[in-house]
């Protein structure tokens, strides 16, 4: 009798086991530091840098989580959670992001947090969903690392605005070519001793000659945009102030042809690709192509809001309209979260590439 009861119990347990979903049913969870995962994460960061209109390029710092599921045998969808770091390269700077140094903790670092869904099909990556936000390191954490380091200051602080205007005037006074206008204030920090302001800002060339300008309001940006990026320090002193400014002018941006009335273009536009996208990583598998939209360069902005950095939250959000390689519209459906017994078969979060903010 006892043997029969034991047999019935074992049979019930086996039925329950068969009815329980496998922890890997519907999707797999690879290692966050697998070459394939890193390849997809790189495509996601390339997407960020191709779509951010203001501020600075970002680099991958850590892969927090990854899930992969296959709607059919020919394609896979990667769902990733990523941490990024702001670099010292402005978004208008053509320097490949692989050569851009992350902003250090002592410089008041900025971290990005991103969620991505990336379709992999036919050797290409297509971003289906992208949502990011970013925030500077806390003042308390900066003080722990560097008690006297300056913190980020709001762009519309009166001292910041004055420093940018004075620096631009000094740059134009030294110019033998075009007169430049402000595109955006990108970064600012205020120092107490000696009283000074450190600013970084983007500029664009106009159709005026710097030495001949009498009314800057009449100067218009060039059709073929000529952008530059400036760093300046304004130091207050008795009886006046000192301004030190250096600017790097980038190559002219080609004019993007506009659609003609008959629906044709005057010339086929060349897709704008982030330089880092086209350069393979020195190690690991070949970098697959990432499908992104055209790079839209920054336009002159109105008075800045009371903010100290450009949040990635405003760069892009939601589902991107894409078509699969077969021409069929594809909308991924997130699978249910399944928790099962036994050890995890993947290792996440992954390694920290630079430092934790």
Automatic annotation (TrEMBL):
The keyword Disulfide bond applies. Residues 27-133, 144-255 form the Cystatin fetuin-A-type domain. The keyword Signal applies. One of its GO terms (biological process) is positive regulation of phagocytosis. One of its GO terms (molecular function) is cysteine-type endopeptidase inhibitor activity. This is Alpha-2-HS-glycoprotein. GO terms for cellular component: blood microparticle; extracellular matrix; Golgi apparatus. PROSITE patterns: CYSTATIN_FETUIN_A (PS51529), FETUIN_1 (PS01254), FETUIN_2 (PS01255). Residues 264-278 have a biased composition (Low complexity). Keywords: Disulfide bond, Glycoprotein, Phosphoprotein, Repeat, Secreted, Signal. InterPro entries: Cystatin_dom (IPR000010), Cystatin_Fetuin_A (IPR025760), Cystatin_sf (IPR046350), Kininogen_Fetuin_HRG (IPR050735), Prot_inh_fetuin_CS (IPR001363). Residues 256-284 are annotated as: Disordered. It is found in: Secreted. It comes from Loxodonta africana. Residues 1-19 form the signal peptide.
């Amino acid at each position: 009798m006892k043997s029969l009861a034991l047999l019935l119990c074992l049979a019930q347990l086996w039925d329950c086991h068969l009815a329980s979903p496998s922890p890997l049913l519907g999707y797999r969870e690879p290692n966050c530091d697998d070459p394939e995962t890193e390849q997809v994460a790189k495509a996601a960061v390339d997407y960020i840098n191709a779509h951010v209109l203001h501020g600075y390029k970002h680099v991958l710092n850590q892969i927090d989580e990854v899930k992969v599921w296959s709607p059919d045998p020919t394609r896979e969808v990667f769902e990733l959670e990523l941490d990024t770091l702001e670099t010292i390269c402005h978004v208008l700077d053509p320097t490949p992001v692989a050569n851009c140094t992350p902003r250090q903790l002592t410089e008041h670092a900025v971290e990005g947090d991103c969620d991505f869904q990336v379709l992999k099909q036919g050797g290409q990556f297509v971003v289906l969903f992208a949502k990011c936000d970013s925030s500077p390191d806390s003042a308390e954490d900066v003080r722990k690392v560097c008690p006297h380091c300056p913190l980020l200051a709001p762009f519309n602080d009166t001292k910041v605005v004055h420093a940018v205007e004075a620096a631009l005037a000094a740059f134009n006074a030294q110019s033998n070519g075009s007169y430049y206008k402000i595109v955006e204030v990108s970064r600012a920090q205020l120092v107490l001793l000696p009283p000074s302001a450190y600013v970084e800002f983007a500029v664009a060339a106009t159709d005026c000659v710097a030495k001949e300008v009498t009314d800057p309001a009449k100067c218009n940006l060039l059709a073929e945009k000529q952008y530059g990026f400036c760093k300046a320090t304004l130091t207050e002193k008795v009886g006046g102030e000192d301004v030190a400014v250096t600017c790097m002018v980038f190559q002219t941006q080609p004019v993007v042809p506009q659609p003609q009335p008959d629906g044709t273009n005057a010339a086929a536009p060349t897709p704008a690709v982030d330089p880092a996208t086209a350069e393979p990583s020195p190690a690991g598998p070949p970098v697959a192509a990432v499908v992104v939209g055209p790079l839209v360069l920054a336009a002159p902005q109105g008075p800045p809001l009371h903010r100290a950095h450009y949040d990635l939250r405003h760069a892009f959000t939601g589902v991107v309209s894409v078509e699969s390689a077969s021409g069929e519209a594809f909308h991924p459906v997130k699978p249910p979260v399944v928790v099962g017994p036994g050890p995890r078969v993947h290792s996440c979060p992954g390694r920290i590439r630079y430092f934790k903010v």
